[in-house]
Write a structure and sequence with these properties.
The protein is mainly alpha-helical and 84 residues long. It has four helices and two strands. A two-stranded antiparallel ribbon has the order 1-2. The longest helix has 24 residues. The protein is globular. It starts with a helix and ends with a helix.
């Protein structure tokens, strides 16, 4: 699991739109989808229910979201503390 994957997951989970999340992070939508698929594969769970018209979080996705946000915040704190 990489922080980048968690960042992509968090953006997609908050917007519930892979294309919009990819735009916000300046990556392509296929890259976003691929990284989230790799994260799902590594964790052994489905994080999103995907249809042609919508995206929603699964129970596993809802459980991961606060944990991912916390990890990303802690990573930022480490970076900030080390750059002082």
């Amino acid at each position: 699991m990489e922080l980048r994957q968690l960042k992509y997951f968090t953006a997609a989970a908050e917007s519930l739109n892979f294309s919009r999340a990819a735009e916000l992070l300046y990556v392509s939508q296929p890259t976003m989808s691929q990284q989230i698929a790799e994260l799902e594969n590594e964790l052994g769970v489905t994080l999103f229910e995907r249809t042609k018209r919508s995206v929603s979080l699964t129970p596993a996705g809802r459980a991961l979201l606060p944990l991912a946000k916390d990890l990303l915040l802690r990573a930022e704190e480490v970076t900030s503390a080390m750059s002082k």
